[in-house]
Amino acid sequence: MRFARTTTGLLIALFSAALPSTSAAPPSASAQSANATPQACGTPLTAAEIDRIASLSDLSTLPATSPLERLEDEVARHEEITEILVRQRDWRGLFSIGLDAVERAAVMPMQRDPESFGDRDWGHAISSDLLRRYLVNLHAEFTGAPVDPHWAPYFTMSRQCEASPAEVAMAGYNAHLTVDLAYAVAAAGTEQSDVPDYYRIVDAIALEADTIVEGTRNVYGADLGPLWSFYALGEGLDRLAGEGVASETLLRAADSGYNTVTLAHGFALQDSRTAPAAQTSIAMLHRAVDGAIGVLSDLGGL
Q: Nearest-CA neighbor of 95 among 124, 140, 131, 59?
């Protein structure tokens, strides 16, 4: 099924990131294996595979290069990580498979085109910052360090094999698009002049929605279609009214368009006067969406 182009365009998987720590030397491969968290659902990874993912996600080892070259390196590392996870059907790849698909099909072609953005530095910065946030949390997951609170549900559920894999995947998209993207908008110093480029990226990625849905279904047997329709388009909110999770925050996001809400959060985070309220709103929306996705999954989707 081909998804319509909408201003919600939730598939902004082109961004992800957090600044890596360089205060200490990375642990050795053997130390990484010893500290790694328990295996996820799927075929158990070997110690060598765990070490390789831990090494690839260690962004302190990236060379000092131009913003575009750094982004290229980050994307290449994530692509190799995805190949390992997908090969073993490791459930921690349920989000990676979609992110990798849109990076290759939508994000990087735009990033490599000098005519794509009014401000190329901004374009490179927001994509790199968003991707780094996920890679930093992957590194924590595969070295036994604490992950960010909004990523904890995704990694925890990846070890609950009785759970719906579609729900696990959507927990990853919720962390990525509700929380990380808003902070990436702020970290990139987004200004009003960047708004057309923001929506240009959103539109390009929205065209790849079916790629995410089909790829996840073909590899993991998980159908994201119904849950994605709820997340991106707000469909099915009426089914939540009797479950106590159709909150004002969730209704507002669905009505306004998720991309627009995330952009507004990013702007608000840049102003010390509005940042605290924005942080609270982001956390509330993340919890509301997680709860709604869980209920819809229990109800059999849409």
A: 131
Question: What digits encode the pLDDT tens for the residues 204-239?
Answer: 777 787 888 899 999 999 888 777 776 665 666 666
Note the Cα 106 to chain centre separation in Å. 15
Sequence-distant (≥ 6) Cβ neighbours of residue 13 within 8 angstroms: 98, 99, 102, 103, 107, 173, 176, 177, 205, 212
Locate the DSSP E strands across 19-99. none
Token pair belonging to 297 = 């999954």
Q: Confidence class of residue 11 from pLDDT cuts 50, 70 and 90? A: very low
Cβ of 48: how many Cβ atoms within 10 Å? 11
pTM: 0.82
Cβ pair 169, 277 in contact under 8 A:
no
The DSSP string of 163-222 is: S-HHHHHHHHHHIIIIIIHHHHHHHTT--GGGHHHHHHHHHHHHTTHHHHHHHHHHHH--
Q: Which long-range contacts (CB under 8 A, 24 or more apart) does 92-96 make?
A: 92/40, 92/138, 92/141, 92/155, 92/158, 93/42, 93/219, 93/220, 94/158, 94/165, 94/168, 94/169, 94/172, 94/216, 94/220, 94/222, 95/134, 95/154, 95/169, 95/171, 95/172, 95/173, 95/176
Listed residue (253, 212, 213, 215) closest to 233, CA to CA: 253
Asked if 109 and 68 count as a contact pair (C-beta separation under 8 A), the reply is no
Structure tokens at 50: 């765990």
Joined together, the tokens standing for residue 22 give 């360089």
CA nearest 125: which of 212, 207, 191, 56? 191
Cα 103 → chain centroid: 11
Rounded CA gap, 230 and 171, in Å? 13
C-beta separation of 200 from 280 below 8 A: no
